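Format notes (please read before filing issues)

Several people have asked whether sequences and C-alpha cells are stored in separate files. They are not. Every record keeps both together, in the order shown below: the sequence lines, then the C-alpha cell lines. Line labels are part of the format and must not be stripped during preprocessing.
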Amino acid sequence: MVIEVILFGYFTVCVSGDGVADVVLSCTLVEEGVGLGGMGGGASFRRTPATLVFRDVAVASDESLETLTPFVPPSVPDLDLLLFEAKVSSVEIPNADLLLHADCNEQETLTVEKDHSTLIHNKLGLPLSQSGTLLTEVIFLVFSHIKSVSVPLRGDVLLNCGFKQLQIPLSQEVAIEWRLQHRGKGRRVLDMKTRLDDAEGSTVVHAERRGSSVDAAKVVGEGNASLTLSKLKVLDEGTYICTVSLGLFHAQQVIRLHIIQPPHVSLSKEKLVLKSETRQTLSCHCNNYYPLDVQMEWLSLSLTDTEPAVFPDQGSLSSHRHHGDGTFSLSSHFTVPPSVSPGTKITCRVSHTALDAPLSVSVVVESPEPDSYMWVLGFLIITVLFFYQVMR
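Then the structure lines:
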C-alpha cells in the first residue's frame, strides 16, 4: 500500500547521536477517492494531520548537537496517531543535511509500509512499531538542486532534475516529461521514454521546443533528467515541471525560470553648456531590458557637494516601447534648471532587477561660451591697438 504524504508545515530537528539527527516534519496525509466531490463527480481528497520523522540525517562535524532536542516517541503507542518514520539511507536523499536548516513547505515524498510489528493502526490498518510509528522507507524520489534560476536573454540554461529508486528496480522503463506553465497556459517542452537497462534503440524523444534536450545516457547511468534549453527567449520564461514516471510511481519537481536582460543606458547629449535664455532638456534612454519594471531618477553633484542629491523635479517619462524580442525601452526627459552652476554633474541613474547595482550615465555642466560677435569685436580692438602701437 502506497501512501502519499504532502509536507506543508513546520519542522524541528532532534538529536539522534553519533553525528546524526532526526528531522521531524508536520505533514498532511492525503487520501484520494474518499467519496465523490465536485460537479463532475470526480474523486475528492481527505486530508488528515500527520507527522514524518526522517531518521539519521548526517550532521556536519563543525555543528553542535547540544542545541538539538532528542526525539522521543510516545511511551504508550497511540493507535490513532499518524506518525511516519523513515531512514534517509533507504534511498539516499540528496542534500538531506539541508533539512536541518530549511523551510520544508509544500514538498512531496512517497513512502511505503514495511511489516515490523503486530500493532495495527486504527485508521490505516497498517502495522506499527512498538513505539507506535508507521515504519516506512523511501523507495522512489524525484529531486532538484534548484528551485529558481535567472538567465539572460539569448543565453543557455540547465534545469536540474534527478531521480532515485531502490537498488532492486521498481521498473526498467522510465518516462520523463518537461512542461512549461506560464500565465495560465501550459505546453509540453519535451518528453522521453527509455529503458534503464540501456537496451539498444529503446530511447524515444519528442522535443517540441527547438533547442531543448535531455541526455539519455545520463538518464540511464545517473538518474539525471535535467533539461537543457539554448538561445532563450522571453517566451521561455515560466514554471517548468519535471515529471518522472517509473512503473506505477511518478513524482514531480517544479523549477521557476526567470528571463532577465539588463538595459543599455545613454544620454541625448555628450556636452551640456548653460544658456541663459534657453531652457535645455536632457533625455535619458533606457533600452532593451526585461522584465518590465525599471526605475529612472535624476541627480546632481555640484563642486561644493560631497554626495549627489536627487532633483525635486524628475521630469517626464515616455510610454514603454515593446520590441519584437519581448524587451522594453523607456525614456526620461529632464529640463535642466537655470539655477544649476557650471561644474555640476547631472546623472541619470537606472535601477533594474537584471543589474547587480544601479547603472549611471552623467554629463558635466559647462560655462556658457561668449557670443561670436563679441569674439570678433575683441579681435578687432586688439588688432587696432597693435597697429597703433606699431605706427607710433
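For reference, the curators noted about this record: The longest helix spans residues 372-391. The helical segments are 216-222, 372-391.
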